[in-house]
Amino acid sequence: MEYLPRIVDDRLSRLLRAQPAVRLEGPRGCGKTTTALRHAGSATHLDTSPAMRELAQLDPDRILTGTAPRLVDEWRLAPTLWPHLAGRLDDRPLPGRYLLASSATPLSYRHRTPGADQLPALQMRTLALAEHPDAQPQVSLAGLAHGDRVTGVRSRLGYRDLAAVAVRGGWPALTDASPEHAAAYNAAYLDDLAEVDVAAAVPTRHQPERVRQLLDTIARQTGRPTSLAGLGNQTAGRLGRDTVRSYLDALARVHAIEHQPAWQPPLRTRTRLRRQPRLHLADPALACAALGLSADELADQPDQYAAIFAAIAVHDLRVYLEGTGARLWHYRDETGLAIDAIIEYPDRSWAALQTCLGEHQLVDAEIQLYTLLDDRLDLDRVGRPRYLAILTATTQGHTTRSDTRIIPLPTLAA
After folding, report:
1. Do 73 and 179 lie in a common domain?
2. Nearest to residue 284, comparing CAs of 186, 369, 177?
3. Are residues 170 and 280 in the same domain?
4. Which uninterrupted H or E stretch holds 321?
5. Residues 213 and 236: beta-carbon distance below 8 Å
């Protein structure tokens, strides 16, 4: 199978030229190993057998010796490997010595690798729309940050096409898959999370059926602020706060979920901000699978589709921003004003992006952006945005008279 270039490739190359060791982390199946092998001089894979993991702890030199960059795949599976690796880095801190890939952080690592989290890391995710083989990027997120306007942009993918993309997901293994194969893959992935992956990441015995019920609840809450109590109360059979916290922690350590925190900017009014994060599954297709939605069923439920579409946009923005130092937030206040994505750049400048499905919703989306700008924010303290944009499932892109960029999501890239 031909390699699909990933946006993380260039950023990984730059880090390896500057740092002795780099961590590459992300959910199982997102393409980490394939990408890491493109940058490695030699490799060893600790997930191939229990014997390999035992060897890593009995004879770490055998595992760590090889042409640089030396890829140690699923390196966290051998807890005692880290001190030997750290010693080598201390003795010879030359750039590009090790590339450490992992899809999970077992509990045993929390107490044995206090220095490992200080290594530079890149989070790899499933394919963004711009990384698909038939991608059509025309608008650069980096260019928008420097004042680019959007003109003459057209997407080949429309409303129902994007519903099919949402249900299939961004797993590299599914780029040519049939809808039936993709649905089975995503359903099996959820089952594996509940029955296998979480088992090594919770401190006590877990109940797979309860984890699966929590995953279903997270899917139903896609695009909505969440709390521990809320998730527990809405899960079948109800879960206590401590149980929800334990399962969420485990799901985060296997990169199955990501939190999108709430932005807390200075306001010019007494309006109170909501602080609950939004919670997203590693790929929006997992939410579709948990909800049992086909592409046609998703397209026929605009409210649910709007939430899934916003999750796709957030997922893709994360892919494009990874390694840049920018942070991604959402905004919500007590009046119900909600903005799907706030990008905060390293210099504290910012941009706001809203999502919508159809052209008839563009005016309302633009009003929401300007309500945030004109009625809520203390611009003397937070500054004016670099740009305002609306990411859509429509096919035409342009810049409005009020300077808002209208961008079909499939045309956006890093």
Report:
1. no
2. 186
3. yes
4. helix 302-321
5. yes
Q: Is 119 in the same domain as 133?
A: no
Range of the domain at 82: 8-123
Q: How many CB atoms lie within 10 A of CB 375?
A: 13
Residues 148, 242 share a domain: yes
Q: Which residues pair with 351 in a beta bridge?
A: 343
Cα–Cα distances in angstroms (integers) from residue 305 to residues 168, 174, 179, in the given order: 14, 21, 17
- Cβ pair 310, 327 in contact under 8 A: no
Write the pLDDT tens digit of every residue in 228-265.
999 999 998 899 999 999 999 999 999 999 999 999 99
C-alpha to C-alpha distance for 123 and 406, rounded to whole angstroms: 28
* Lookup: tokens for 19: 């740092």
Token pair for 38: 């493109």
What distance in Å separates the CA atoms of residue 227 and residue 248, rounded to the nearest whole number?
Answer: 11
For residue 190, being part of any structural domain is answered with yes
CB 22 within 8 A of CB 121: yes
pLDDT in tens, 262-297: 999 999 999 999 999 999 999 999 999 999 999 999
Which of 102, 123, 144 corresponds to the end of one domain?
A: 123
- Backbone conformation region of residue 390, classed left if phi is above 0, alpha if psi is from -120 to 50, else beta: beta
Give the CATH number, domain containing residue 117.
3.40.50.300
Count Cβ atoms below 10 Å from residue 89 Cβ, excluding itself. Answer: 17
CA distance 15 to 22: 7
Predicted TM-score (pTM) of this structure: 0.95
Report the alpha-carbon distance of residue 260 to residue 194 in Å, rounded.
22
**Are the beta carbons of 279 and 315 closer than 8 angstroms?**
no
Same domain, yes or no: 282 and 145: yes
Of 123, 138, 154, at which residue does a domain stop?
A: 123
Cβ contact 307:176 at 8 Å: no
Tokens of 108: 């045993």
**Number of structural domains in the chain:** 2
43 in the same domain as 145:
no
| 169 and 61 share one domain | no
